[in-house]
Amino acid sequence: MKRRGFLLLACGQPLFLTEGRAATGSGSWTAPPRFTRPDEASDEGGLWAMMDREETKVRRSPFLLRDAALREYLQGIVNKLAGEHAADMRVYPVRTPHFNASMAPNGMMQVWSGLLLRVDNEAQLAAVLGHEIAHYLQRHSIERLRDLKARSAFGLFFGMLGVVGLVGQLANTAGAFGFSRDHEREADAIGLSLMRQAGYDTREAAKVWDNLRAEVQASYGGDPSKSSPMFATHPASEERSSTLSALSADDSGGFVGSAEFNQKLASLQRAMLDDELRRGQFGPTLVLLERLIARDPGRSELLYFRGEARRLRAGPGDHDLALADFVRAQELGHEPPEVHRSLGYLFKQRDDIESARAAFVRYLERAPTAADSAMIKSFL
Q: Which of 46, 217, 269, 332 meets the CB 3.0–4.6 Å disulfide criterion with 300?
């Protein structure tokens, strides 16, 4: 499966099912009974069958994070939140450096690595997963698709293509447009109720949107709708943060799970940060790294990534700040070998040939089989 097709698929599968009605603020919410598989002759059944086929592609995708411990951890959070419905849900962590999670009508949930990199603890992760579960429990996707069908020429396509063909059209449309903002607001409120019922600290939910707002304001002229389709269709982060804060105002504690979350992500975060840097969106990346460094100031790896983001952005003063980060990373110890390569590039650019040479030699000593070793040797 090609990456572009995979990403489109991933963006387009937040979907359906209905009964439990509107969530309320500080009160509990009662989920509907488990759903039964719809008749395949119906539009809902055809959509479900198509998602089954797409789930097979996700399982085979090279972007799937095949980390059994992580997947078990994510499934455990879903089990806490979804109650009896968890038996119908399967979680797939996917390696792509953007903030997103989605839920298909057949119970397939995708959690992107960019989301895992950006939440601070298990409670914040539970807030996002609870939101997706709420879309599933309220069958928002089928409501959305039927609404689109009622308001457009899908009836003509139905006659020409039959149920299965129409389902494909509708699913793609759902992926393109997402849920209505009212659906998103309802999912936020229900997700918070699910968090509360599972014993999580609901006050963490608003912080997810505060952190995202800080990132998007650092790019695209501060217009979040230009950075992600999610921000184009969801209520503004300010509104979500404010609403979630109000809904959790009467709560006084609960499980946060910082240590548990950090332990599960420790072996994966380096690859996630590499992917983040490759996005080339250095403003938001630097906001993210400032937050990670504030949380763990003695970690030389984070200083490397902040320095590298500044070196690559190459704005006024960036190279001096990058140099300071690389030097500090060395002082802390356990710095990645790439710190020395980046120092070599900085010195080379400043025509400090001897310092550049020493740094490149140190890099090759630390990473003799690196993919770029032949190129680095050509600098010596």
A: 332
